[in-house]
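Your task
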Amino acid sequence: MSAVRSEEAGWGEVVRLPGADVPPLPVEAPLDPAVVGARLHEEVARRRLVLEDVDPGLGAVVDAVERLAEGGKRLRAGFVLLGAAGASGGVAVPGALGIATAVELFHLAALVHDDVMDHADERRGVPTVHRAFGSRSADHGAAVGVLAGDLLLTWADDVLARSTEGLPTAPAVRTVWAQMRDQVLAGQYLDLRLQADLGSGTEVDVADVVRMLQFKSAKYTVEHPLRLGGTLAGAGPDLLDGYAALGLAVGEAFQLRDDVLDVFGDPRATGKAEAGDLREGKRTLLVALALERGTAAQRAVLARRLGDPALDAAGIAEVRDVLVATGARARVEDRITALVDDARRALAALRLDPRTRAALDDLAEGAAWRSR
């Protein structure tokens, strides 16, 4: 089935994904999470049939994936759709919904694998995939988590290919997609290396931490989704460069807000275990700045508390006190504010239709200043 597009249809247009065997879904608005959520549900349901045909027990793996997919803000999907809309003058673009779905599947894969590496217990208010299968042994649960993440990665690739089949911009989209994948995996490695350095007492430069968070999270949260949508719609280099500047600023602010919420936020709102980064000994910017300016006593607290899987409420409070007293939290908040200002300037420089501009502004602001 080929993709169809009606210039008069606008946001209410029905887009049929190339090769899809599910009913078409209306692209009613670029930020409607139900639209991408429905596509995710259809894709996972299709894959369930294949897996359960091998063995009915594989349905439990799909169940765990579906529970994880139910949550989330569909932030990356929204930026894909807005990136396409910005390049098309606000007209729905064939393939955009499929790419948005592929990005969400890729994100789920990254979460599943990240949770395995971080030994995380909870994600989006439900047990992490590897914990759901850990009753036999921790190794068994971790192995299932790796396999589930691998499945999601292959599904994401399949959806991307099917959604862009026959479209003239498909090769360019694939190039951006490949760059996104490689950079996320490279950023994940940098995160693991920094964590190991902290455990060994090795000094780490703040610039190393910033580079890690840019490649592990910032770029693939906003910049790459915007560029994927824009590239699909045939955006020129000026718009794509503008997307990159906007996306990097918003994406970094998003990750820094995530780091702050991990330590100071309400786990009932975030859907993650309290202070998970502290228990894992993550070298976030908060930690790096505190180590940079902390006294010997304050650095000793961080050395003793970070990476302790049994960290209790008293230990969390002690670390929080250090992060505040050293000015680390204030400096991160100041950086978020500066990044949002950079993003506003980048957005103002983009030539966009009013509706897309307003939606992009709302999504960017929400990413940086969210409370969960």
Q: What stands out?
A: The two ends are 40 Å apart (CA to CA). Residues 1-31 have pLDDT under 50 and may be disordered. The beta strands are 14-15, 25-26, 122-123, 126-127. Residues 1 and 121 are 42 Å apart (CA to CA).
